[in-house]
Design brief:
317 residues; alpha+beta; Beta-lactamase; 5-stranded antiparallel beta sheet; two-stranded antiparallel sheet; 8 helices; 11 strands; 25% strand; disordered N terminus; disordered C terminus
Length: 317
């Protein structure tokens, strides 16, 4: 009987396949080692952190909060967007002359500082700087009248000289509100007098004021205590004083805008900055806008601390 020849075992890999296998095995082992080293490093350090901008944190044990008469209030840390105090911030209310913040922004989009605007016999109720028919006024001077003296006649002159006139200006105001995502705001006049459908909210006023204060010229004007305006031919002067009582008297207050009508009651939007921390506050329908805003400012800086926000992850086996 013939002996059967032993068959050679079947080769699993060709030489080429074997070297490919070795290569990928090396990659796998190296990657695993690197991952284990990283985990070991994390285990040693405990956490891998990155520091972001500071956020306000209410102090532990804070039990006293301001009691505010205003119908609507919102106070926000401008840098982080953190709400510090709120009361009905989305209630639709009469904005009164806080309207002039948008009036100023629309006018600044179109006019140049030295543009001469003609006073065409403005007839308007309420606060006035005393503009006379036929006067030529420099645009920037009208802005001072609008923002620090809250002059309704200045608002009407800005609207009247706009391309297309007053009605087109009001359309531009509402387009600006939409552009800035003021979802609960609508205007029917440039001065802020009460009108059907002329509404805003504390939240929208905080948003638009935070935007406006980024404009250096706007910020400079609303922080001005007094200003003298002389018309184009140098014959008529207008003495303007900021009707915001907090500017120049409360530490860190840098504007922004007052508002009042009999129906709206007292409105005030305020920007205050202390120790590089900026706060925007809007009060609508207050019985004491200056006193309540000051109380709120003091309470915020007494009861909040600003701390670094750290994001990270830890590993435990």
């Amino acid at each position: 009987m013939k002996k059967k020849k032993n068959k050679k075992p079947k080769q699993l890999f060709s030489k080429k396949q074997f070297f490919v296998f070795l290569f990928f095995s090396f990659i796998f082992i190296a990657s695993t080692a690197l991952a284990l080293t990283s985990l070991e490093s994390l285990e040693t350090s405990g956490v891998n952190e990155k520091t972001f901008s500071q956020r306000p944190i209410l102090k532990k044990g804070t039990s006293t909060f301001p009691v505010i008469s205003a119908q609507s209030v919102l106070a926000v840390d401008v840098d982080s967007g953190t709400t510090l105090y709120e009361k009905n911030p989305d209630t639709l209310l009469l904005p009164a002359s806080t309207t002039k913040i948008i009036t100023a922004l629309v006018a600044m989009d179109y006019y140049g500082s030295n543009d001469a605007l003609v006073v065409n016999g403005v007839v308007v109720e309420g606060q006035k700087m005393g503009l006379i028919k036929g006067e030529k006024m420099k645009f920037e001077d009208l802005l001072y009248g609008l923002l620090i003296f809250s002059a309704n006649d200045a608002a009407e002159v800005l609207a009247d000289n706009y391309p297309g006139g007053r009605e087109t200006f009001i359309v531009a105001m509402n387009l600006k509100a939409k552009e800035l995502n003021l979802t609960n705001t609508h205007f029917v006049n440039p001065s802020g007098l009460d009108g059907f459908g002329h509404v805003s909210t504390a939240r929208d006023l905080v948003r638009v004021s935070s935007y406006a204060m980024k404009n250096k010229n706007f910020a400079k004007i609303v922080a001005t205590k007094e200003y003298d305006v002389i018309n184009g031919d140098g014959k008529i002067s207008h003495r303007l004083a900021n009707i915001n009582e907090l500017v120049g008297t409360v530490d860190g207050v840098m504007g922004v805008k007052t508002g009042w009508t009999e129906n709206a009651r007292e409105n005030l939007v305020t920007y205050v900055k202390r120790n590089d921390k900026g706060i925007m506050i809007a009060l609508l329908g207050s019985q004491d806008r200056f006193g309540e805003t000051k109380e709120l400012i003091d309470w915020i800086f007494d009861n909040y601390t600003w701390e670094d926000v750290k994001m990270g992850f830890s590993y435990s086996p």
